Amino acid sequence: MKNEKRVKKVRRIHVENGLNKDMQEKLVILFVIVLLAFAGLTVRLFLITRDNGEQYKKQVLSQQKYESTTIPFKRGEILDCKGNKLATSEKVYNLIIDAKVMLDKEESLNETMTALQTCFPFLNMSELRAYVNDNPSSQYYVVSKQLTYDQVSPFMEMDNNDEEYPNIAGVWFEEEYKRVYPNNELACDVIGFTGKDNVGNYGLEQYYNDVLNGINGREYGYLNKEETLERTTIPATDGYNIVTTLDANIQQIIEKYLYQFNEENKNTAREGNGANNLGCIIMDVDSGEILGMASYPNFNLNDTRDINKLIGSKKVNEKGMIDYDAVVLTEANINEELSNDDEVYRNLNYLWRNFCISTTYEPGSTYKPFTVACGLESGKLTGQEYYTCNGSLQVATHDIKCHNYKKGGCGTLSVKQTIENSCNVSLMLMGRQIGADTFLDYQNTYNFGLKTNVDLYGEARTDSLVFGHDTMGETELATSTFGQGFNVTMIQMITGYCSLINGGYYYEPHVVSKITASDGSVVKNITPRVLKQTISAKTSAEIVDFCIGVVEEGTGKSARPAGYMIGGKTGTAETVPRDRTNYVLSFMGFAPADNPQIAIYVVVDRPNAWSQDQVSFATKLTRSILTEVLPYMNIYMTEELTDKEVEELEALNITIKRADVEEEPSEPEDTEEKPEVDEEGNIDARGGDVTSSTPLTEEEMQSDDVTTAPLTGTVLNMETGEAVKENDDEVIY
Amino acid sequence: MKLFTRDPNTEKPYIDYSLIFIVLFLLGFGLIMVYSTSSYEASMSSIVNNDAAYYLKKQAVATAVGIFMMIIISFIPYKIWSRFGVIAYATSVVLVMLVLTPLGYEANGARRWLRVGISIQPAEIAKLAMIIFLAALVYKMGNKINTPKGFGIVLASPLLICILVWRITENMSSAIIIFGICLVMLFIATPGYKRFAIILVAGVALGALMLFAITKMADSSTFGFRGQRVLAWIDPEAYASGKGFQTLQALYAIGSGGIFGKGLGQSIQKQGFLPEAQNDMIFSIICEELGLFGGICIILLFVLLLWRMMIIANNAKDLFGAMIVVGVMGHIAIQVVLNVAVVTNTIPNTGISLPFISYGGSSIVFLLIEIGLVLNVAKSIRF
């Protein structure tokens, strides 16, 4: 029975009849099971959407990459007046590794590594491989920074060559700009340098930081109304270029001789540099444009932190000043002396300062023309006075000595001769005539104690370093007349001096003449700006005459370059403490004498010599510089040349250019660059010279005055000629 | 059961147009979705020369080949294949073994492909081979299948190929699908439910035991990557950057799509977050772009497809044809259910493609061959 039942229940299979009833039933059941499964999954889909829909929607959006990439701007260039690049920004490339992409494909790793090794042989490949293996998910790893285009271009070519190198992957280059100074040390103090993130330090780089900098561009993504990601690029705006009044050739000449001075004088009386500081400024007399400005010791703008540049300098104390008995840094002791970063940076900061605008000092006798001009202009002196010097003058309780004290004084001198001989006693006597109030008013007019507002970062404040009406007594007035007791900066001195020479116009000194956009269009022209008139044209003409006398007859003879006549004034200032060993030597002059175009100011701060009080340190340096600068500027020679001078010029490869020798018109020449210019070029240059150097007819008339005016001066000169000749140098006290 | 029979007066060969229409619709839709999901990544990839249509082109070629094969097969009387059961079995065993030889090659970290001019997955061939082999076996055994011995033989026969696919090609999901197809065919061919209930309960119990072991194990690496996949299944957020990443991104895609989706081609997730979205995870992008609505429509199309197959199986002229259709039906049903279950994180993540829609040449060609077989079985229906 049991068996029968079972047989009844299990239907027989007829293979040629398709599915039997049992099977059909089972198939329906199977279909229902599948339907149920689908129903279940549909419910699941519904639940995900209902319960987590909003959360997941946000999650999806939050995963999107909105982070923007910065497109760097190019910082503007700094050019000299002829368009030479003093500072520029080069595009450089950071090598970035994306390990994730590199490991994505099996063949990529080896091929990419081999390519990297070929193109960048300096890379440590085993280290790089280890990094990629250890950090397979890393997408941003900076392998090498600031590679030049030449360095990266071979790799870029390989990467783009898909036929030979199809599997290079996971390497890309991030672009940025690097500040480059093509001339390394040249004009380092004036230019300044740029650190990270385009922040300028010192000089033009800091003063014009905002002008030089542009605006970074951006590439960023955002969600639009339909919640889809869109990417937008805002291009970078490059910074403006600045065109300076500097002339790289003049700058080069100045720096060459500062360096030469240092080489000749270093390690003489003591170990170290040829002088604590050397400074020189050359300025256009009729515009306040700075043509050259340099100091020594200098530094390399492309390697500003090179402490080897400190060797030879004196160590700076904790206040950032140089002590009287400061240690000289030498190769042997530099690591020991500069044991920590603070000390290193303190010394480097001192090095990076621009001596010409940041350092204050007592000017000494170069101030005397200012005192005389003050007396003449105010009417307190007539110019016809005579002064007698017995070697010293009692002021209050002190005896203040003249440099000729040992020889019994300078004798009786005219006003002009007091300048030529640099007689302190005479100047003190003039001071008594002028009086403290008038003296101080004029000092203020000359801008001493005030900033010149030169467009360079770091100009020193001197308002507390000059006397006021309440602090100037008899002694202070006496010493101030010959430039001791108060402090000035080089830029103050030469700017004021230009006004004494050019007819009294005080121009604001400036270095930048033009700001241009990256496409070359002019954004701003900076024209010369007269701030005030310090003295009258008549007084100016007299000062010019006196200063020519200094070079012709007086203390400044050795400053005269071969073939030219110049005017100027020497200075020998004793520094504190007054122990008659440390001096600042200077020469401040103009050239050419008959038609002043440029002013030059050379300062030798405590030369490395057994006897420092030799003003020839400054005058000879001036002479060397002018010997090359004046011919370079196409200024014609007016003076006879001795055989020795001809030899000297020939040795320097300078062609003798004379305005008066017509049969032999030698060509104006850019000392090194252009060996020869034809005769026509010469004539053109000559014509251009006259008009360009003195654009104002008014000033031309004034310079005519200079040559004819002080007839009396020459007569008196001859009388006291001998006294002058005996001293090339001057001594104070 | 009258519902499933046709008017006996009809003498023309039966052509199931609705089945053909559904299959063609799914293929067309699949091509659109493959392009939608792959174009972004392809355009970004230098490996495929930044060709946005790279995957679409390859898939279109495979689809054309598949349709051609389907038409050919649909004209060959299926009865012929009953003689090839053993050969089919043996061939698939050999092909799977060939993966170990230099002919085999590796992609995406698994050695699953054979390169013979074109690249094919032996596992896909094995699925077809098993359907033919088992259909022939059931057909030949006749009533013997009702004996416990017959049942045992049918149940044991796919084990060899399953183990080979699992171990050699490290493709457990294909092994499970093959075994699933066999179970479905066996379920239809043999009477009674008790044995299947036991198998089902045993399977569930084993799964639960494994799950328990994996979650309690301190060191999750004991069970290899599968153990981690199970852990990621339980809490995908905790493994968001590892094994749970793909699952979580798929869930984000589904959830962010809402009812009607972001619009065709508007998926955000396919832009790098769901890698190779054109493969197994394509359903999540369908849900993101076309919403719950689009996803359910696709499921309904598969339901219709399976329903048409059920009718063909019920009306097949003989047991061999019926069993072939049952096998194909089982194959498609298992893959669709498992694929959607993986995408919705209903089961642990395992690589199963969505039939006719996911990118994959071997899969589409062999699926269309199976459809060709079904069409031929349908053609032989006489009333």
Query: How many β strands of chain B by DSSP?
Result: 3
Structural class of the secondary structure composition of chain A? alpha+beta
Rg of chain B (CA only): 21 Å
Q: List the secondary-structure elements of chain B in sequence, H or E.
A: HHHEEEHHHHHHHHHH
The oligomeric state is: heterodimer
Number of helix segments of chain B? 13
Poorly predicted residue ranges of chain B:
none
Structural class of chain B: mainly alpha
Biggest sheet of chain B, strands in spatial order? 1-2-3
Question: What can you tell me about this protein's structure?
Answer:
The complex is a heterodimer of chains A (733) and B (383). Chain A is an alpha+beta fold. Chain A folds into 3 domains: 69-244, Alpha-Beta Complex (Penicillin-binding protein 2a (Domain 2)), CATH 3.90.1310.10; 304-353, no CATH class; 364-632 and 694-726, DD-peptidase/beta-lactamase superfamily (Beta-lactamase, 3-Layer(aba) Sandwich). Chain A is 39% helix and 18% strand. In chain A, the strands form 7 sheets. In chain A, strands 2, 3, 4, 5, 10, 18 and 19 form a 7-stranded mixed beta sheet that branches. A 5-stranded antiparallel beta sheet of chain A has the order 12-11-23-22-21, with helices on both faces. A 3-stranded antiparallel beta sheet of chain A has the order 1-8-9, with no helix packed on it. Residues 1-8 and 662-733 of chain A have low confidence and may be disordered. The two termini of chain B are 15 Å apart. In chain B, a hairpin with a 2-residue loop joins β1 and β2 (110-116). The mean pLDDT of chain B is 87. Chain B has helices at residues 17-44, 54-75, 85-98, 122-141, 148-156, 159-168, 172-189, 194-216, 224-234, 244-257, 282-315, 319-343, 361-379; strands spanning 104-107, 110-116, 118-120. By secondary structure, chain B is mainly alpha-helical. Chain B contains 13 helices and 3 strands, in the order αααβββαααααααααα. A 3-stranded antiparallel beta sheet of chain B has the order 1-2-3. Classes of the chains: A alpha+beta (733), B mainly alpha (383).
